[in-house]
Amino acid sequence: MDPLSIVASVVGLLQAISTTYATFNTIRNLPKAFEHVRTYLPLAQRILKDVRAQLKQRNLTKAEQQSITRIIRECEIKATELKQIFDALEKKCKQDKDARSWDKLRGWYHEILRGIKGHRVESLMNDILEAMKKLALYQRFRLATQEDVAEIKKALEDISHVEPSLDDAAVESKTLIQATQIVNIGGMVQQNNPSGGMNTFNPVYNVSVDTVNLGKAP
Description:
- This protein is mostly helical.
- The protein has two domains: about 5-170, I/LWEQ domain (Up-down Bundle); about 175-218, no CATH class.
- About 60% of the residues lie in helices and about 5% in strands.
- Strands 1-2 form a two-stranded antiparallel ribbon.
- α1 packs antiparallel against α2 (about 30-55).
- The two termini are about 45 Å apart.
């Protein structure tokens, strides 16, 4: 895909996220991280629109096209993931009309992040803004005014200090594995259910029951 098409795609994704955000305007105690996303989406859109205008006017070399495409493609991946999160939360809110506070949405948010193995919204917005900074400072375009650069730097600084939308322990938690194995009375069993990190496997001998349950339901 050429750079102009990818830019158009990302602009569309960011606009869709902005539209979806309206669903959360009435949610109580929404994390500041979400508000930061809403605040800085227009900045990213403005930079991309400037890039699109420049692409239409300039004949880039193949190397320049590849360089720009790589940056915008990174942004597209992050914007797509961010949109998936907002779309999934919006769907949950529409299904449950009584959802009015973050206490309810937080569980959904955790579930969504685990389901798509995603990053928190503030991390995705940070990556999008980092891509905008690269584009704004790209010498061939000379897009950046001092105001643009200052605004992007301020946005990145704000996001770096915002309270996480979900704490690290919740993001990194894993479901405890529960397993059942049927063995003969007096038999021998070893069942291994590794789940990352270092694992030690200890065999169980002389089983005196028909069913062995390993693990505990979460």
